[in-house]
Structure formats: structure tokens, C-alpha cells
Structure to design on (295 residues):
């Protein structure tokens, strides 16, 4: 039986992510859209890994938003260049995308990588004019460990306050298959990353829910065996109980890596994930524009 080329690549992606060779192939086959300009290696801190890449639509519309995308890798692997395919997909839709690197285990442990997420977010908020995104709504977005970082930066007020900002400056948070409620720690590696004073409580986004949190979109596959669906379900329930704005979307049969397959340029988005994300962004834009019209 012949397997269609696109399905073959999608299958390889699901099986091999986060193998660098697979991501290299995906990025190599991602069209370099002439309507997207890229600035790479901008420093947001002094550490070699405190750098970010900026993807900009050449002709941004008034509705263009800013995504700060944190990639996954179990807090111990990953490179911003590996996720060019995600950034280009969103930038080609007319939005600005910032992809930061952050420090990893074993060089650092929790909460240092979350502090890097807050530092990168603060940099974007402070340099909006420099990168042509001033006054545009900023959304934090992440996959897997990156979703954990995005959620803590947005929900635990302490991180942005330490950088002179507050979560009210964010338009929303988008979490793709993130670990938000993953106690007890079972693996020795996780114990090394998170077993520091107060880390067991402070590392769990579900413990930092309030009614004035930014709006949250949670996306998960019910076939995820790396980060269990209950992480998103528990966070969504806690947010609802607090009166916060939250949307939970569960995709049947989708795995942990499969959740981001729709960002691959040569894979059809049969799940509708991209549209779901853009709909969430547009809804927050409408709320924001409506509030600006109030006396």
C-alpha cells in the first residue's frame, strides 16, 4: 500500500519529535514566505541562551497580534531555530511571533527557566516600538514544557512583577498540551529539576489561579501519553471555579507531538487548531477594542 508523501512526513514527525533531524527536515521544507521578515539572535539578557528571534509580517493589519512562543523539550532541550515552522505559520497569517530560547536543566533548575520566560516577555513589552509591535496585544503561547512556562509567567503574578510588569498587560495565554498539575513527581529527572524549596507548590500553574487572570485557551489531545489530559482539565476547572475566562479544546486521537502537526506547512490542518487559536485571538481583540471605546 502506498502512503501519501504528506502523511508519511506527518507520521515521521509524530514518531521522531523532538529529534533534531526531523525538525531540520520540517524547517527545510517550510516556505520562506516573502511576506515574512525575520530578525534572529536578539539578546533579551546577558546569557548566551537569552536570545530571541522575531518573525514579522511585512504588511501587518490593524488586527495583528504578538505571539511569544515557548517551545517544549522537558525543560532540558530545545532551540528556538527548531520551531521556525511554528513561527512562520502564524506570521504568514499576519501576526508577529517572538520565539525565545531559555536556560535549561542541568545548567539551571526551576524556577530559572520561568524567570527567563518573564524576562523575554518583559523585553517584548518594553521594546514594542523598536520591533513595530507597540500597542498590539501580546499573547503567551507554548507547547509542553513551554506551555508550563507560558502559564506560570501569565498566572503567577510574581514573575512579571519582578520585571516591572503585570499580567494585565497580556491579552491571553495559549497552552498546547502543557503540564499544569503534575504532582507527584515520579521520575528522578523531574525531581532534580523541581525538588527545590517551595518548588512542589510553586511549579504547578493550578496553584496560581485568580479571577483577574488573562483569558486562557487550553488545547490537548486525548491520546497524549506524555502529558496527561487531566493537566488541562484540572487547570480549566480551577480557572472556571475562580471566574476566569477559559476555553478547553480536546482533540480525539491526538498525541503529545501530534498537537502541533497543524503548524507544519505541508500538513493540512484537519483538526482546525490554527483556526481555533486565531478565533481566540480575534475574540480577545474584540474585547480589547470594545473596552477602548468605553468612556
Amino acid at each position: 500500500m502506498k502512503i501519501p508523501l504528506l502523511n508519511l512526513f506527518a507520521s515521521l514527525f509524530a514518531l521522531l519529535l523532538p529529534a533534531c533531524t526531523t525538525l531540520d527536515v520540517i524547517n527545510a521544507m517550510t516556505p520562506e514566505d516573502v511576506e515574512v521578515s525575520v530578525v534572529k539572535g536578539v539578546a533579551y539578557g546577558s546569557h548566551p541562551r537569552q536570545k530571541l528571534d522575531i518573525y514579522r509580517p511585512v504588511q501587518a493589519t490593524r488586527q495583528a497580534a504578538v505571539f511569544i512562543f515557548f517551545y517544549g523539550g522537558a525543560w532540558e532541550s530545545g532551540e528556538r531555530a527548531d520551531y521556525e515552522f511554528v513561527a512562520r505559520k502564524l506570521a504568514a497569517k499576519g501576526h508577529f511571533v517572538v520565539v525565545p530560547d531559555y536556560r535549561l536543566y542541568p545548567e539551571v533548575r526551576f524556577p530559572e527557566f520561568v524567570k527567563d520566560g518573564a524576562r523575554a516577555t518583559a523585553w517584548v513589552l518594553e521594546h514594542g516600538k523598536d520591533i513595530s509591535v507597540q500597542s498590539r496585544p501580546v499573547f503567551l503561547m507554548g507547547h509542553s514544557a513551554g506551555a508550563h512556562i507560558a502559564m506560570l509567567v501569565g498566572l503567577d503574578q510574581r514573575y512579571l512583577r519582578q520585571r516591572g510588569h503585570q499580567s494585565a498587560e497580556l491579552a491571553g495565554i495559549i497552552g498546547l498540551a502543557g503540564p499544569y498539575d503534575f504532582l507527584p513527581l515520579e521520575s528522578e529527572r523531574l525531581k532534580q529539576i523541581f525538588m527545590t524549596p517551595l518548588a512542589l507548590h510553586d511549579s504547578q500553574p493550578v496553584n496560581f489561579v485568580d479571577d483577574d487572570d488573562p483569558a486562557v485557551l487550553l488545547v490537548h489531545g486525548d491520546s497524549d501519553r506524555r502529558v496527561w489530559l487531566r493537566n488541562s482539565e484540572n487547570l480549566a476547572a480551577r480557572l472556571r471555579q475562580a471566574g476566569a475566562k477559559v476555553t478547553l479544546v480536546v482533540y480525539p486521537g491526538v498525541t503529545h507531538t501530534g498537537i502541533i502537526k497543524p503548524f507544519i506547512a505541508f500538513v493540512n490542518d484537519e483538526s482546525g487548531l490554527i483556526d481555533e487559536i486565531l478565533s481566540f485571538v480575534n475574540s480577545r481583540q474584540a474585547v480589547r477594542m470594545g473596552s477602548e471605546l468605553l468612556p
Q: What stands out?
A: The two ends are 65 Å apart (CA to CA). The CA atoms of residues 12 and 22 lie 7 Å apart.
